[in-house]
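Researcher: Checking consistency across runs. Here is Signal peptidase I again:
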Amino acid sequence: MIYYDFGFYLLLATLVTGVVTLIDKLKWRKEREAKGIEYDEKGNEKMPMLIDISRSFFPIILVVFLLRSFLFEPYRIPSGSMNPGLYDGDFILVNKFSYGIRMPGFNTTIIPTGSPKRGEVVVFHPPHEPQTAYIKRVIGEPGDRLEWDRGVLTITPTCDDGEVCQPIVIRSELVSDEAPELVPQAEVFDLYDESLGDNSYQVLYLDPRARARQSLKQSWSTVVPQNKYFVMGDNRDSSMDSRYWEFVEEEALIGRAAYKWLFLEFTDEPVIFGKKLPKGVSFARVGSIE
C-alpha cells in the first residue's frame, strides 16, 4: 500500500530535484559550457528555473527527508484519546527507527530493528483509515490472549516454545475522582494509575455514576493474530481503538512516540475557514513519553 502522507511527497521532491541535479551535472551544464555560460549582474550562473530550483533545494530537501524518514518525525496530537498523558495540542517526536528502517511512502521494512512492546505508545496507520495517522498504547502483542472484565485486563502471552506463559493481570488503581483541568469535561472522569511492561502512566475512565457506555462495566476477550497488535487509548471511554476496529498491522506502524516538545492551546471556537487558531504556547510539558 502507498501512504500518501507528507513523507511520500517529500520522497517525490527528493527524487525529482535529485534527478534534475544529477542530469545537470552530467549533461546539461556541459552543454551550457559549450555554448558559453551566462551570468547575471551578481555573478551567478543563469540557468533554467527548474534546474536552478533543484540545485538550490536538493541538499536541503535531502537532509530533511533523511532526518524525517529514518530518525524522528514530528506529529501533533489531534484529539483527547490519550488524555491525561497527551493532550490535543501536544507536539511530539516519533522515533522512526524503533520498529525498523522503512521505505517512505510504502512503509515496507528495509532493516528490522525491533518491535513494539506492551505499554509503549505508538503512531500507526489504522486499518479503517489507512491514510491517517493514529496514536495509541500497545496492549497486546502477536499471539496474546486478552480478557477484559470490568476494568481488569488479563494478558496471556504465548511462549516461544508454544506453551502458555504466566498471565499478566493489570488492575488500574484509583488516584482521584477529578481529572486534570486540560481534560475536556474533566468532571465526569476519574483518574487511575496503571503499569504495563516497563511503562507507568495514568488513564481516565468515566465516573461510574455516568449514564454513558463505560469500559468499567464491559467484558470481552480476543486473541491477537500474528504480525498484528492490539492498541487502546489512555482515555478509555473516549477512544476509538482496537476495541472497535480490531488490530494494527505490523506493516502499518510508523514509530514509537518518544518525546513531547511543544504544547499549543487553541481557541475554543473556529476563527477562520472553520479552523481553530493557536492562542498560547507552552514548553512546560516537554519530556519523554511514558
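Researcher: Does this match what you'd expect to see?
Model: One thing to look at in this run: Residues 6-70 form one domain.
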